[in-house]
Amino acid sequence: MTIPSAQPETWPSLPLEAWSDTCATLHMSMQIVGKLRLVQGPWVNHSWHVTLYVTVKGLTTSPIPYGTRTFEVDFDFIGHRLIVQTSDGGVTAFVLEPKSVAAFYRRLIEEMEKLDLHVDISLRPCEVAEPIRFDQDETHRAYDREYAHRFWQILVQADRVFKEFRARFIRKCSPVHFFWGAPDLAVTRFSGRQAPQHPGGIPNLPDWVTREAYSHEVSSCGFWPGGGAVPYPAFYSYAYPEPTGFSETRVKPDAAFYSSDFREFILAYDVVRQSESPDDTLLDFLQTTYEAAANLAKWDRASLEGDYD
What we know:
Layout: H1 16-40, E1 53-54, E2 58-60, E3 64-66, E4 69-76, E5 81-86, E6 91-95, H2 101-114, H3 145-166, E7 177-179, E8 184-194, H4 207-213, E9 216-224, E10 234-240, E11 257-259, E12 264-268, H5 269-273, H6 278-296, H7 301-304
Antiparallel strand pairs: 1-2, 2-4, 3-4, 4-5, 5-6, 7-8, 8-9, 9-10, 10-12, 11-12
């Protein structure tokens, strides 16, 4: 008699302190994979060409051009493998397990070369204050299967709800995509108006990249595993440029708050996870923070939003 395995929680717990080492190591591994797409693909506005996407097993680069061929790199957080596939039928993979970032980088390059894929990337991590070159990083070396899997499970749920929220907007809006710089899953709405030049200043990210990303007025939201002044997983929402009065606006749910450190609204993931209806709680947060940004900045909401009632 086969005993069925226990069903995983739909919104599992993810205390940052329990997997911080794995999170930091996985962050660097994702940057390595993301930079393959950055190097090989044509530049797309707001750096949308560098992102990863949530899949039924993990995260994917989606197809990356390589001459007349394409290739794709996938993180599988069910089987715990990194998989490289090509449009001419080539496949190779290796196990995701505790190993240094340097060892991960070397193994990925070796596996890609087996498929006649030769890609040079910048070995300096982005958006971290004290970067260690990927090929020299022996510090980050953790991989906890349970917490990597939980992180992906949360991305699956957030991706699903974010897509529902995105569907309410009919003008320019980003895909729901995973930026490996932060790292965070995000979706961004645009008013259509140009924005003042962004000051830049993000560690190890050229200011021109940031300024192009924020060339136009936005309301953006996402999910982040946490760190610094917010040492726990959280949903966020911000506006650029931030309209007067944004930080004082009352939003839903009551547990959401404005962080002066990050200049954005924060909603702890556990508030969503433990609520009676996580989907509704998260959608309330996304909708009310967007409305705060759009109303205060006098967006033309009638022409920007679809009829979703």
